Structure formats: C-alpha cells, structure tokens
Amino acid sequence: MLDRMEIAINAGIASGLHLGAQACVMSYGQIVASRAWGEARSGTPLTPDHIACWFSAGKPITAVTIAILVQRGLVTFDDPVVRHIPGFATHGKDQITLRHLLTHTAGIRSDVTGYPQADWDASIGQICAMRQETGWVPGERAGYVPRNTWFLLGEVVRQVDGRAVETFCRDEIFAPLGMRDTYMAMSSDTFDMLEHRIMPMHVYREGRLVDAGLDTRLYCTRPSPGSSMRSTARDMARFFQMLLNGGSLDSATLLHSQTVDQLVARQRVGMFDQTFKHIMDWGLGIIPNNAHHGPDVPYGFGAKASPRTFGHGGSQSSVAMVDPKVNQVITLIWNGMPGEAEHQRRLKESLGGVRSQ
Predict the structure, then answer these.
(1) N or C: which end of the chain has fewer CB within 10 A?
(2) CATH number at residue 340
(3) Torsion-angle region of 246 (φ positive above 0: left; ψ -120 to 50: alpha; else: beta)
(4) What is the span of the domain harbouring residue 41?
C-alpha cells in the first residue's frame, strides 16, 4: 500500500529534502500501515514512536474544541469574538465572529503573537490591540492566518470553559480518543521525559538541511493553538478517524455527526485566498478537497482523492487527510522543510498512489 509513498520519501532523503518521514494509514477504522523511514536526526533512526510537530495540520483539533462548546450550548459559530473577549473590540473589530476566525475571513493576518517568547496573556493583548487590514469586510475576503485567530479561539475556550485550551484538548479530546502521545503544549516535566522522542524539524538553508531549533523546551511547552500540536502520525490518524466516523472512535463520542458535517462542509466557496494566492474553499478549520480549483492548488490531497476528501496540511512538513469514499485516513510527516515548491511536489508524489482499490 505504501510502495509509491516509500519511493517518494526515499527519493526526498537522497536529494536532501528531509532526513526522514513518518506515516500512518487507517482503512475502515483499522491501522493497516504505520511506518517510518530515514533518520530523526543524523545517526538516529526515525521510528513510528517519534513525536513530531504538525504545525497547521493540528488546526482541526482547535476547531473541534469550539465545536464541543457549540454542542454544549456555550457558544455558537456566529458569536462575535467580543462576546467572549471584550478587549478584542478595539479598532472596529467587533463584527468578527468565530466563523470568520475558523474560515480565515477575519482580516487579521499579520502575526503579532510574539510566540513563543511572549506568554499567553501578552499574545492575546497584542492581538486585541491590532488593527484589521484596510478595507477588509469580515466574511467577504479570505486570507489564511497561521496564528492570530487560533490564539483567539484558544482564549474563547479559556473564557467559556475556564481551562487553558491545551488542558481542554488533553481532557476532552486526547484522553477520550486514546491519543497518549499528543500535546498542544507539554509540561516541563513531560518535556524532560519525552525529549529523546521529539523529532527535530529541519529547514533547507544555503543548500543543506539544518536543525530549525523548534524542538526546544520553550517551543514544546508554550501553546500555539494553530501551530504547536505535537504527536505521532499514529495518534493523529486516530483524531481524523474520529471525524471520518462522524464524531466517535471506539467507545468515545466527541461530536454529533451533524456537527462534523458542519466542520467539513464548504463554509466559504470560490474565494481567492490572499495568503496562498489561489482560489480555495474552506470548512470550519478544515480544508476540503480543492482540486477542482486547479492542479496547483496549495496543500492538496493527491490526484486520487475523491471530491469529498478533507483534512489539513502543516507548513512544508505534514498532511492529514480523510477520504470518505474509500473510508481511509492518511497522516504523513516529513522532518524537513524544503521550501513550498519542493514540498508541494513531494506531497503530490507521496499521496498519489495511496488508495484502497
């Protein structure tokens, strides 16, 4: 099943795009492949048990935290952000809703979080003080946001539920789903215990891969709800299997099927994304299959993905995808960030042959 993926991954190792990669495939709710290739760092073989940063591929987890609150009647997707974070109202941002945050249509893209050096309250203060982009009407323009809006969603969780968003994720998502190796932010003690299993990310600079310095105590212990999720490919496959199942996995039910349908539905359609510079549809924190918008659409799911496929990618490093047509989940993480063009190419090559027949 992973023959073509393995060829593409090994070719990338040989050409210096990454040191290694980790993948998991679930079919009809069962793990049919859990593999790792290459090295975690020079001289250390990469295994399926290494814990990797998923960057933006973890955004759907934060989206699910909001969906859980919606089901409990504590928020709605159309709540203005200021209902839960009054300080966000500065500079006329009072019309921005949770739906705008989840669909990247809020118009607050410039990263002001100060992550990871700034603490949580400082990051929220910076976002509240920022101005919306000139001429941006929420919901009428689109532009992908890596961090700002996701900090706001995490703060909504804290204000409404009382727990920090990383604690909410642990208690309400990871523990029920048996995701024992998944963290939005580790405690310092957990970092000490797991440091040897944390896979460094490498970035391509001046013709070679170098350690990006993202596996430090500071990065691993500070939450960033849009970019700091760490996990094995196996654990993350369990999360996306829950979505494929309509909100349940094994004996745990997190969401109603109708809620999952809302998350994966195309909530924004045919809008030009000002960040990615391409027309892209979007769900509530979920990327649907955008192949109908052209063969070069960023962070796609491969040529064989059905139109109903959904998931999310992480910056030059990862992908999680669900194809309901063949009842399949694929998660894949590379430990090298080779630049957007090279990543998009290896993404297509790696996903192109992985489908049930």
Answers:
(1) C
(2) 3.40.710.10
(3) left
(4) 3-58+179-256+297-351
What's the rounded Cα separation, in Å, for the pair 329 and 309? Answer: 10
* Domain assignment present for 303: yes
For residue 233 the two structure tokens come to: 């490919």
Judge residue 93's burial from the number of C-beta atoms within 10 Å of its C-beta, 0-12 exposed, 13-18 middle, 19 or more buried.
buried
Provide the whole-model pTM.
0.97
Report how far apart, in Å, the C-alpha atoms of 78 and of each of 18, 21, 37, 145 are: 41, 39, 44, 19
User: How many domains, the chain?
Assistant: 1
Q: Write out pLDDT tens, residues 205-242.
A: 988 899 999 999 999 999 999 999 999 999 999 999 99
Give the pairing type, strands 30-41 and 20-27.
antiparallel
- Please, what is the angle between helix 233-244 and helix 257-264, to 10°? 110
One-letter-per-residue 3-state SS of the chain: CCHHHHHHHHHHHHCCCCCEEEEEEEECCEEEEEEEEEEEECCEECCCCCEEECHHHHHHHHHHHHHHHHHCCCCCCCCEHHHCCHHHHHHHCCCCEHHHHHCCCCCCCCCCCCCCCCCHHHHHHHHHHCCCCCCCCCCCCECCCCCHHHHHHHHHHHHHHCCCHHHHHHHHHHHHHCCCCCECCCCHHHHHHHHHHECCCEEEECCEEEECCCCCHHHHHCCCCCCCCEECHHHHHHHHHHHHCCCEECCEECCCHHHHHHHHCCCEEEEEECCCCEEEEECCCCEECCHHHCCCCCCCCCCCCCCCCEEEEECCCEEEEEEHHHCEEEEEEECEECCHHHHHHHHHHHHCCCCCC
> Rounded to whole angstroms, how far apart are CA atoms 203 and 212?
6
Q: For residue range 267-322, what is the model confidence (pLDDT) as tens digits? A: 999 999 999 999 999 999 999 999 999 999 999 999 889 999 999 999 999 999 99
Which are the contacts of 11, defined by CB distance < 8 A and separation ≥ 6?
A: 349
